[in-house]
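Record now logged for everyone:
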Amino acid sequence: MTVHIGPLRKQDLKRCAELEAELFAGDDPWSEAAFAGEIDGGHHYVGAYAGDELIGYAGIALLVSPPQAEAEVHTIAVHPDWQGNGIGKALLLDLLAHVAEVEATVFLEVRTDNEAAIALYERQGFEKLGVRRRYYQPSGADAFTMRRLAKTETAGRTA
């Protein structure tokens, strides 16, 4: 079945909350209202759809406007049955494309034990900046803070 990425729809928010509860049960999964608040706040949220079924979602917020734009990835999640098929990458690339036009540096947090996600982020140019101890609650799991420099910043760096 073909998977496509498109704007997250209000009617999908209940399903987002269900996926959150399944994927992030040991932490503090987002509610339907939390997703609605993000969309109502004007942040960029997209869904991965297999036909009409929501199988993943992602969101990013522009925190600082140009000329030194900064953005933060808020979430990326893919249903377990669909993981490993490039859907997380497609969602991430959509988020990065959304903030590319303002040449934003992008930040995110990821669990230190989520090796697949860390590898995905590193392949897309993210680097680890540090560790946030006990970032995820209530599990107490640590998170890496990662950053992907804006295109203009990376052009000026030397190898």
In short: The beta strands are 3-7, 44-50, 53-64, 70-78, 105-111, 127-132, 143-148. Residues 13 and 35 are 6 Å apart (CA to CA).
